[in-house]
Amino acid sequence: MTALPETKYGIDYMPTDVPGPKARALVGRDSHVMAPMGRVYPLVIEHAAGCEVWDVDGHRYLDVNAGIAVLAAGHCHPRLVEVGQAQLTRFTHMAGTDFYNEPMIKAAEKLVSLMPGGAGWQVFFSNSGTEAVEASIKLARYVTGRQNIIAFYGAFHGRSYGSLSLTASKPRQRKGCFPLVPGSFHAFYPNPYRPPLGSDPERVAETCLSFIEQTLFATTCPPEEVAAIVIESIQGEGGYIVPAPGFMRSLRELCDRHGILLICDEVQSGVGRTGKMWGFEHEGIVPDIVASAKGLGGGLPIGAMIARTELASKWQPGSHGNTYGGNGLTCAVTHELLCMVEEELIDNAAHVGLHLLGRLEELQLRFPQLGCVRGRGLMIGVEFIDPTSGDPDHDLAEAVMIEAFRKGLLVLTCGPSTVRFCPPLTLTIEQADEAAERFALAIEACVAR
Questions:
Q1: Residue 16 pLDDT
Q2: Average pLDDT, whole number, for the chain?
Q3: What is the model's pLDDT at position 199?
């Protein structure tokens, strides 16, 4: 393979001693922090701004993982910092489930205004995506009187018991946690690149829908006992998989026929990431309940369950609650973040995302190890394969992720062998070009070994 030419970023941009001495010392002191998920590489952040991160040794990195799709406006955006500082001088917390506060009300109003129709929805604020999913499950069971929930293989919905029962991404996420919540079932996600059940790629949507109706409903999961079907509009931890065309619309129709609620988990794909406010908008459907988090708080911990008012109004006082939901600080920042999403970030995600997708697709022509480049907006996955067999190459994806760190680029893997790009929605064209070039340097270094 011909070596990539030197770029303005430099093949030897990062020093060979990454991580540096200060980072190594802090990693060595990390014995008191539980790490059941495992750390992926020894980044020790010191400060950050926008899409750039500096470690404790002064090394600069381009961040295209944004704290796992959390930092929608980038690190330390001045607008969010100003709002957060101002709110800190007023009050930080007064339990929103017991009392009222203006930041919570304003955040809910803004969130509802960005839902389909701009009205007819109510919000329950939580602390995370997991909690938003848990609330969605509870509401669905409460209002329907049914108990069963269907999710999809490859899904990630969280790690508490209800959400974990729907998660089906990696076996280690469930290991040692059984028994899980009864009434949890799984169907096949319509992956057009790797069609399940050996289906024709052109009929993957039809095949996956048929499995629900002709297998699940006909054998173990009567439709009249299903409260909800939970789906990610783009599967996140499963590999940044865009569903086969037509599937989501057919799933909406199936739910309507059987009186089943459709819950969209937009924790990773929502809040402008795909170039629309919600990922489901690309599919031309409207769900009954939406779970949101990650980018919603601009880096502060917040989640939200947004449900149609006719469903949410059936919840009686005391049916659900929490302590920190509606926190004044997080809601003030959330309102400002949502204003930014509406004003500029959605459009930027669509524009820059299309450019970045194109740059990554160009790398497929150079590296046969790139089997598929897919995504919407600034939610893009690059799947690594064995070019001989076409099988997923997990080890190469992990190696590229670590080598990218050494080249000054922060990425993460997902699915069996996918590297994900989920940068701040403030990413510029120039930064997208830098990301693609650094990524190419990392791939070249790995495949040359």
A1: 65
A2: 95
A3: 87
CA pair distance 435, 61, nearest whole angstrom: 10
Does any domain span residue 6?
no
* b/e sequence 265-292, b meaning 16+ C-beta within 10 Å: bbbbbbbbbbbbbbbbbbbebbbbbbbb
Tell me, yes or no, whether 187 and 56 share the same domain: no
Please state, as a whole number, how many other Cβ atoms lie within 10 Å of the Cβ of residue 196: 17
Would the pLDDT of 414 be above 50? Answer: yes
Indicate if 208 and 353 belong to the same structural domain.
no
Question: What are the residues facing 235 on neighbouring strands?
Answer: 241
Q: What is the pLDDT of residues 124-179, one digit of tens each?
A: 999 999 999 999 999 999 999 999 999 999 999 999 999 999 999 999 999 999 99
Q: Please tell me whether residues 434 and 289 are part of one structural domain.
A: no
- Range of 417's domain? 21-77+344-447
Nearest to 419 by CA among 445, 390, 393, 448: 393
pTM: 0.95
Q: What is the pLDDT of residue 35?
A: 83
